[in-house]
Amino acid sequence: MQRKGVDSHFANASHKATRRQALRSIAAGMVAFPAIAAGPALTDIQIVEVEPTYQDFQYRAPMKFGGAVVTRVTVQNIRCRVRGRNGKTADGFGSMPMGNVWSFPSKKLNYDQTLDAMRRLSTRMAKITAAEREWGHPIDLNRSLEPQYLAAAAEISGTLAQPIPKLCTLVTGSPFDAAVHDAYGKLHGKSSYQTLGPDYLHHDLSHYLGPEFRGETLDRYILPQAKPKLPLYHLVSAVDPITAKDVQHRIDDGLPETLPEWIRYNGINHIKIKLDGNDHAWDLNRVVSVNEATAQTERGLKVSSYVYSLDFNEKCPNVQYLVDFLHELKARSADAFQRIQYIEQPTARDLDANPQNDMHAASKLVPVVIDESLTGQDAFLKALEMGYSGAALKACKGQSQALLMAALGQKKKVFLCVQDLTCPGESLLQSVSLAAHVPTVKAIEANARQYVPAANKGWSDRFPGVFQVRDGFVHTAGLDGPGLGAVPIKRA
After folding, report:
1. Are both 306 and 386 inside the same structural domain?
2. What is the domain extent for residue 348?
3. How far is the C-alpha of 156 from the C-alpha of 152, rounded, in Å?
4. Which of 35, 64, 97, 410 could in theory staple to 239 by disulfide, Cβ–Cβ 3.0 to 4.6 A?
5. Stretch 173-182: mean pLDDT, rounded?
6. pLDDT averaged over the chain?
7. What is the value of pTM for the model shown?
8. Helix (DSSP H) and strand (DSSP E) numbers for the chain
9. To which H or E segment does residue 91 belong?
10. What is the CATH number of the domain that holds 124?
C-alpha cells in the first residue's frame, strides 16, 4: 500500500487545490477549462492509495495468433482508493491481462523479458498514480497521468534492447484507469456510465476531441444502462482443432475441444478466425474448413444466422494480399464470404511508417477495422484517412480512451466493435460492460472461457449470464451497479 496517512490536512489541501484550479483557469483565459457551474466541481475526486497485485495462470490449451503461441498469462489487479471533496472515500478495482505477446511483440526480447518490463512499468505507474495531486473526473485524471506513464516507459526503455511500445504502456495502465472509474462511481453511488454528463464531467467533448464536438457531452454517446445481451464471438485460433480429426491429444477436462462441440456447448453463432497472413492457401483452407464445420453443425441445430470475423494480426504483407484473399474466398465459397462481418488489423500497426497500406480497396469488399493501431485519436483519424472502416475498442487500452474513441467513432459514423484480450474474471466484466454501453457495438468476445478457465474460478456463480453462456449470448444482468458494475471476490 502506498501513500498512507494522506487524509490529514485534507480540508487545507482541498482549499489550495481549488484555488490553484481557479488561478489556472484565469491565466488560461478560460480556454483550457471552460466556464461551468460551481456544482460539478464538488463531484471531483483525488487519488489516495494504489495497490497492484498479480496472478499467474497456465492456459488449458495453447492459443496462436500473429505467428506466436501463448500458453500462460499474468493478470494485473489494481485496488485504488479515492476521496471526494467532502472527505468521503471509496475503493475501486481494475484488472487486466498484461498481454505482453500482443502489446509488446519483439524479436530482441523473449516472453519473460517483455513481461518483466511491463511489471517494472506497473510498479512505476503505481507510484505515479498514488502521487497524483490533481482533482477531477477519472477521464481528466487519466489525461494527466498518461503522459507521466509514457515518460516512465521511455525511462525503462533505456535499459532494454527494444523500446516499450505506446500500446504496451496503455495496456499496463488500463487497470489503473479502470480502478479510478470504478471508485468514482462507487463514491457517488452510481454506475460509472451514468457519470459522463455535465453534472460530473466538467468539459464538453471539444475539450478532448476538438471543435467538431463543441457543446456535446459524452453521455450523448454512451448508454446509461447496459444492453441486456450481446452475441458472443467464439475464437478459433491458428492451432485450434476444428473437427475431431484435428485433435492430436485430448485434454479431457470436461470442456469442448472442437468447433462443433463449442457451438453446441455455448450455442455459438459468431466465430472469430485467426489467420496467418503469409500463406494464401492455408488462410483460404482455414476459413473454408471452419465454414464447412459450422454449417454442418448449425444445420443440425436449425440455425442459419451465423457470422464470422477474420483476424490477420498485422501479418498480411500488403493490402493486395487481403484483396486477393477475399476475391479467392468468394470464388471458392460465396457462403463463407457473405458471412464475414468484418476483418481486423490485416497489415502493420504503425500507420505512419506504412502509408502504402491504403485500405480503401479492401474496405469496399468487407469492413476492415484497426485494433493494434488504435492508440489514440490521431491514430483513429489517420486510419479513417487510409480507408479503414472503423476500429476495435478494447478495455485493455483504458476505459477513458475507449469511451472517447466510442464517441469519435459514432460521430464519424464508422464501424465499431469491442475486442477481447482473453480477459478473465473482473477484466471480462469490464469488457462486456463497455460493449454493452456503446450503442453501435453488436457483439463481444470472451476467450478466457476457452483458454484459461481457471482464471474465471469464483466468478461464474456470481455472474452466470457472463460466464455460463448457453444460448450464444452474454447476458449483462448485474453490470449496472455502482462503479463499473461489479465488486471482485476476495482472492486467497
Report:
1. yes
2. 219-475
3. 6
4. 64
5. 98
6. 91
7. 0.90
8. 16, 12
9. strand 89-97
10. 3.30.390.10
